[in-house]
Amino acid sequence: MKIDQFRVDPGHAVELAERSTRSADGFDGDKAAGQQEAVRLIGRLGELQQVLYAGATHKLLIVLQAMDAAGKDGTIRAVFTGVNPQGTRVTSFKRPTDLELAHDYLWRVHQHAPAAGEIAIFNRSHYEDVLVVRVHGLVAEERWKRRYEHIAAFERMLADEGTTIVKLFLHISKEEQAVRFRERLADPTKRWKFRAGDLDERKRWDDYQRAYEAAIEATSTPWAPWYVVPADRNWYRNLVVSQILVDTLEALDLRYPDPETGLDGLKVI
Ligand code: ADP
User: Fold this and answer.
1) Domain boundaries, the chain
2) Which residues line ligand 1 (CB under 6 A)?
3) Mind listing the pLDDT tens digit for each residue in 117-154?
4) What pLDDT shows up at residue 74?
5) Residue 48, class by beta-carbon neighbours within 10 Å (0-12 exposed, 13-18 middle, 19+ buried)?
6) Among 71, 120, 162, 243, which one is least packed by beta carbons within 10 Å?
C-alpha cells in the first residue's frame, strides 16, 4: 500500500469532505487479507522499534488527532501491541489544568516529546489549541490564529534536533460516529467512554471539520507531515497506520549500535 495517497502535501488545500473515510485507493475491502497484512506490519513495527531503542539516536513523535469515537484509543491498542513498552510513551492531553492554563499552551507538550531511542505517542496534542479552542472560542481569534505559526516553528525545532514527526488524523464520517455513539450507549463495557457533552460536540461537527482543515493545511510540512487516515473501518485504519509507521521508520535506516571492540574470542565461563 502506498502511503503518499494519505499524506497532505505542504501548501495544498484540504477538503475533508473530498477525502474518503473508508479507503483512499479503491481498495476493494478484502478484510481478511488486510488484517493479515496489518499483523505483518505490526510485527515489523516491533522489530524496528527494537532497533530504534537500541540505537538511541532517533526519536519518533506520533500525533493522533480525531473527532470523538474515531478510534484513537483503538489504534494505539492495536498498532502498538508488538512494541516494547520500554521505549514507548503515550501521553493523553486532556482539558488543561489551572497550572497548565497559567503557562503558554506548548509548555505542557514539550516535556512529553520523545527522548533519543523513544517513540512518543500523543493522544490529542497541541493541536487542541487550534481545534477545540477555536471551535469554542476559548481564546480570542487573533490569538489562536497565530498558533499555526508557533506550532509549525515548534515542530521544525523538534525535527531539526532529530525528531521524526508523523501526524495522523483519523477521518470518520458523521454517520459512523453516530453508529459508534449508539454502540457506546448500548454496551455496558463501552458506556464509560460516553459523555453527554459528546453530543454537544457532535452538533459542532462542521465547525470541527473546518478547524481540522485549517490546522492540517497550515501545518503539513515535509518534516512533520499530516496523513488523513480513512477510519470508518477499524481494520483498514490499522492497516494504513501501521504501514505509515513502518515506512517512516524504514526510511530512517536504523541500525543496531556497533558492539564494543575486542569481543571476538571472549569465552563466558
Ligand atoms: P478522549 O476523548 O481523548 O478519549 P476525554 O473524553 O477525556 O478523552 O476528552 C479530553 C477532552 O479534553 C476533549 O474534549 C478535548 O477537546 C479536551 N482538551 C484537550 N486539550 C485541550 C485544550 N488544550 N484546551 C481545551 N480542551 C482540551
Assistant:
1) 3-250
2) 68, 93-96, 123-124, 128-129, 132-133
3) 999 999 999 999 999 999 999 999 999 999 999 999 99
4) 97
5) buried
6) 162
Residue owning the nearest CA to atom 2 of ligand 1: 68
Strands (E), 148-257: 163-171, 226-230
Q: Which tens digit of pLDDT belongs to each residue from 41-99?
A: 999 999 999 999 999 999 999 999 999 999 999 999 999 999 999 999 999 999 999 99
CATH of 3-250, one of 3.20.20.450, 3.30.450.40, 3.40.50.620, 3.40.50.300: 3.40.50.300
Cα of 83 vs centre of ligand 1, distance in Å, is 26
Would the pLDDT of 182 be above 80?
A: yes
DSSP 117: T
Q: Say which residue the cell 459523555 belongs to.
A: 195
The CA 93 to ligand 1 mean position distance, Å, reads 6
Q: What's 7's DSSP letter?
A: B
Query: 125 CA to middle of ligand 1, Å?
Result: 9
Residue with cell 459512523: 176
Please report the atom of ligand 1 found closest to the CA of residue 129: 23
Å from CA of 236 to ligand 1 middle: 25
